[in-house]
Design goal:
It comes from Flavobacterium celericrescens. This is Co2+/Mg2+ efflux protein ApaG. The chain is mainly beta and 128 residues long. It has a single domain, classed as Sandwich (Immunoglobulin-like). The strands form 2 sheets. Strands 4, 5, 6, 8 and 9 form a 5-stranded antiparallel sheet that branches. The chain is elongated and about 50 Å long.
């Protein structure tokens, strides 16, 4: 698990390899990631959007931008957490992801970015 705190918001990520499958005559490597967002600040905040950079070992980069996370824009009061799971497909058994969440502080009404720490994606058979 990797974790990082930006402006009182702690992001923790845990990953797992789900397996391989063929689609359009090409092998894909499936991964899930579980993200926990913890508000360690004294203010209420809301997650509005996300930005992901997904890398594989073949120098392919996929950029994903979108509203909220899995259809939600969670509001976190001080001390609260929000956890969600999602996934991605890679063209190689090894890769990485990083990104950020765009959030708003309800006390100051200011928007700010919360960094998502870079984390590795790896099929167990490829890591030996």
């Amino acid at each position: 698990m990797v974790s990082q705190i930006t402006r009182g918001i702690k992001i923790s990520v845990l990953t797992s390899f789900e397996g391989t499958y063929f689609k359009n005559y090409k092998i894909h490597f499936a991964f899930t990631y579980h993200v926990t967002i913890e508000n360690q600040s004294k203010d209420s905040v809301q997650l509005n959007s996300r930005h992901w950079e997904i890398y594989d070992a073949l120098n392919n980069v996929e950029i994903v931008d979108g509203e909220g996370v899995i259809g939600k824009k969670p509001v976190l009061k001080p001390g609260e957490t929000h956890t969600y799971s999602s996934g991605c497909l890679l063209s190689s058994p090894i890769g990485a992801m990083k990104g950020y969440f765009n959030m708003v502080n309800f006390t100051s009404t200011r928007s700010f970015k919360v960094e998502i720490p870079a984390f590795k994606l790896g099929a167990p058979f490829a890591l030996n």
